[in-house]
Amino acid sequence: MNKRVLITGAAGFLGSHLCDRFIKEGYDVVGMDNLITGDLRNIEHLFKYKEFEFYHHDVSKFIHVPGHLDYILHFASPASPIDYLKIPIQTLKVGSLGVHNCLGLALVKRARILIASTSEIYGDPTVHPQTEEYWGNVNPIGPRGVYDEAKRFQEAMTMAYHTYHGLETRIVRIFNTYGPRMRLNDGRVLPAFIGQALRGEDLTVFGDGSQTRSFCYVDDLIEGIYRLLLSDYPYPVNIGNPDEITILEFAQEIIKLTGTNQKIVFKPLPKDDPMQRRPDITKAKQILGWEPKVGRAEGLKITYEYFKSLPKEELYKQEH
Ligand code: NAD
Ligand code: UDP
């Protein structure tokens, strides 16, 4: 019998890449999503496989999956600032009620569970680069609090199931990841800049652009997650690419990549926008033998080709 894995958030950017990976590895995959920020087109190529099933379901409500499950990967959650600011209550619910439902299901099925946490649990960090030991600097009642605190609660709940119930748990702290299947209009910086360049608009840098991020290509992230799931390490592990860049430099890179002559315009920095972010990946290297392989130049080229290949009307589509 094949190993069987439930992936929540399956129709999203990362969830759909995880579905691909597990199908490729010979698992039976149950995808679950309520499509609030996802898109069935990300997984439509999988419907031809008898090993793939899809449940249209909100994981903040009781989850019923017939049959055995070996693994659960909880990836359902809005992930971009404009998404979670638009649906703050659902964001808090999927990180709290949603993870509780997934943990309960894991217990019943005796499955191992991996949850998607985030570098956002470090907030606007005062320790740089961020190690897993750092507790973070989060404003609980600021606009980003709905996401950051949901994810912090999610980690606490997961550790409680591990210590109290002895559940096999894995926690991945994901740093900014990019690649094909990001939504052009999800507001995250990479699709925002590429969308602007393709439409011939100015690139909007928030603040003076001196804030930093460290961007990881999606294939590297998926490899790290796969290794973490199969490891025996129950505590949080950072997965990300430590190659740090300012947002202003990033805008300049995108202008060069797209061969456009767009100008850069400066807009106000959103409240509580973290000033610096870079993962310390010592743990991932030691425990998983993992480090990123795809440099930004290569990853951005692949991602740009993907965005260019989309139907033109996608470029002008409003937020849903
Ligand atoms: P995404 O928006 O593309 O995917 C999220 C998916 O979850 C969507 O398909 C959405 O419809 C689904 N979803 C949301 N609420 C749901 C609910 N209540 N029930 C069922 N499905 C629901 O975002 P993504 O970038 O793929 O992020 C996936 C996960 O990874 C999230 O948990 C996010 O917090 C985490 N993460 C992502 C990044 C990144 O850089 N992409 C960084 C850190 C953490
Ligand atoms: N950003 C920007 N212009 C945009 C969108 C985002 O300058 O059009 C900035 C944003 O303020 C932040 C960085 O890019 O400093 C990364 O933003 P994103 O939403 O991609 O990720 P997060 O802030 O969650 O790390």
Automatic annotation (TrEMBL):
Species this protein is from: Thermaurantimonas aggregans
Signal peptide: none
CDD domains in the cross-refs: UGD_SDR_e
Entry cofactors: NAD(+)
Pfam families, sorted: GDP_Man_Dehyd
Locations listed in the record: Golgi apparatus, Golgi stack membrane
Superkingdom of this protein's organism: Bacteria
Coiled-coil residue windows: none
Top-rank EC class of the record's enzyme: lyase
NAD(P)-binding domain location: 6-301
Enzyme Commission no: 4.1.1.35
Record protein name field: UDP-glucuronate decarboxylase
One of the protein's GO biological processes: D-xylose metabolic process
PANTHER family according to UniProt: UDP-GLUCURONIC ACID DECARBOXYLASE 1, UDP-GLUCURONIC ACID DECARBOXYLASE-RELATED
Topology class, membrane: Single-pass type II membrane protein
Keywords: Decarboxylase, Glycoprotein, Golgi apparatus, Lyase, Membrane, NAD, Signal-anchor, Transmembrane, Transmembrane helix
Pathway entry: Nucleotide-sugar biosynthesis; UDP-alpha-D-xylose biosynthesis; UDP-alpha-D-xylose from UDP-alpha-D-glucuronate: step 1/1
UniProt family annotation: Belongs to the NAD(P)-dependent epimerase/dehydratase family. UDP-glucuronic acid decarboxylase subfamily.
An annotated Gene Ontology molecular function: UDP-glucuronate decarboxylase activity
